[in-house]
Amino acid sequence: MADPDVHDDTSADYEQLEKALLAQDHDVAGVDTADVDDETAQYLVSELIDADVVTTVPEDRVLVHEPSATAFDSATQLVVFHRGWTDVRGADGEAE
């Protein structure tokens, strides 16, 4: 039997399509910063501070997300980042 023609092999195309569809699914399920108002963000950040997930750096006026060592100057950005970070970590745990 002859070897298949490399030009007829569409497996890489299929993998790229799967990756694109998966990325779209994650985008649809993603959190928009409009979903978090300032009051909610402040409450959630205080909860994260109490849980030792976030550290305040008053002299730099930033909030540090300790698990990722990422600094934010906005409570809303921190909350949205933490939600996404938690979702990704959860997805990684399910894949294992």
How many separate helices? Answer: 3
Q: Describe the oligomeric state of these chains in a short phrase.
A: single chain
What portion of residues belong to β-strands?
5-15%
Q: Reading side by side through the largest sheet, how are the strands ordered?
A: 1-2-3
Largest sheet: 3 strands, antiparallel
Give the overall silhouette: elongated
Instruction: Tell me, rounded to a whole number, the average pLDDT.
Output: 79
* End-to-end CA span: 39 Å
Q: Would you count the extended β strands for me?
A: 3
State the secondary-structure class: mainly alpha
Low-confidence stretches: none
Proportion in helices? 55-70%
Backbone CA Rg: 20 Å
- Strand-and-helix sequence, N→C? HHEEEH
Describe the structure.
55% of the residues lie in helices and 11% in strands. With 96 residues, it is mainly α. The chain has a domain at 34-95. Strands 1-2-3 form a three-stranded antiparallel β-sheet. A hairpin with a 4-residue loop joins β1 (54-57) and β2 (62-65). α2 packs across α3. It is elongated, with a radius of gyration of 20 Å. The two termini are 39 Å apart. The model has no long low-confidence stretch (mean pLDDT 79).
In short:
Helix content is 55%, strand content 11%.
List the helices and strands and how they pair.
Elements: H1 11-29, H2 38-50, E1 54-57, E2 62-65, E3 70-72, H3 75-95
Antiparallel strand pairs: 1-2, 2-3
